[in-house]
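thoughts on my protein:
***
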Amino acid sequence: MSNPLFKNIGKLAIRLATGGMMLTHGIPKIGRLFGEGPVKFHDPFGLGPEISLGLAVIAEVICTILVMVGFKTRIATIPLMLTMLTAAFYAHADDPFGTKEKPLLFLVLFVAILIMGPGKFSIDSRIKSKKRSLF
């Protein structure tokens, strides 16, 4: 079944499902970032827990929304992949594989989105088709 329509529906489904599930991890971090009291968050790069949490929020909320709508999709997957690598191998370094499995699954999905691109049902595709029609 090499129907281009089905391939594009599949790409959309992967973007929306992966993004929807990632938002369930990112949105609660917004409250932690702006909550009262000191921020407690892993600081893998020595930037401070507040900045590290802020970067995780940017990746897990803003970049996720960009992936979902298909805008700057491939670029938006990069911070997400870095965040998932950090989660799997730093934040959960001493945890059993079952705990690392979730960020690794997200990592694989974001790598797949990077490789495949967003598909026809995306803002990137609309922009690309409008640029073609101008020339």
Q: What stands out?
A: The CA atoms of residues 41 and 49 lie 5 Å apart.
